Amino acid sequence: MAKRSTSKRPKAEGPRPKSDGPRPRSEGVRSKSPARRPTGQPKFPKAVSSAVRVALDKKAEDVVVLDLRKAGGFTDFFVICTGATVRQITAIADGVRETLKRDLDERPTLMEGIDRSEWILLDYFNFVVHVFSRDCRAFYGLERLWGNAERHEMADEAPVRA
């Protein structure tokens, strides 16, 4: 028969006192609290968030989401970003296409500009991804054209999914 430990700890009497501050967390242990989104950061559909995340992962510049739902657009969202080179523009578009197909079984209903790689358009019906060269983005000015749409600039943090 195994021996029990003879050390006795004093029992706490009554409720435990509340801590004055946050409890220290162990290294590498995740908090179980739900993810909170920063104030003012909008929620996007999962596919839009994934497209933005891929563009940021591929080092796209000036990533913007235009919310066209209240602007009377033919789609709900535009994801607009800029690539520095033809190779990067193609990589961003390919990355978005492959990720959405693999993770969400989403395929674009229309793809344009693949051959020239100055402006690649991926139309997913509820949202459209535009990957521009710098000159082409400045020339067409989609943000100006859809100036009444709600504009959300995406930084290096991943957007919140709906």
Coarse morphology: globular
Rg, rounded, reads 24 Å
CATH-scheme architecture of the domain at 43-153: 2-Layer Sandwich
Poorly predicted tracts of residues: 23-39
Oligomer: single chain
Give the integer mean of the pLDDT values: 79
Helix content: 25-40%
The CATH class assignment of the domain at 43-153 is Alpha Beta
Secondary-structure content class: alpha/beta
Alpha-carbon distance between the termini? 57 Å
Q: What strand line-up does the widest sheet have?
A: 4-5-6-3-2-7
Beta-strand portion reads 15-25%
Largest beta sheet, briefly?
Answer: 6 strands, mixed
Q: Would you identify the CATH H-level superfamily of the domain at 43-153?
A: Beta Polymerase, domain 2
Q: What does the model show?
A:
By secondary structure, the chain is of the alpha/beta class. It has a domain at 43-153: Beta Polymerase, domain 2 (2-Layer Sandwich). It is built from 4 helices and 8 strands; from the N terminus they run E-H-E-E-H-E-E-E-H-H-E-E. The chain has helices at 46-57, 86-104, 134-140, 142-145; strands at residues 43-44, 61-67, 77-82, 110-112, 119-123, 127-132, 150-153, 160-161. It has a 6-stranded mixed beta sheet with strand order 4-5-6-3-2-7. Strands 1-8 form a two-stranded parallel ribbon. The longest helix has 19 residues, at 86-104. It starts with 42 loop residues before the first strand and ends with a strand.
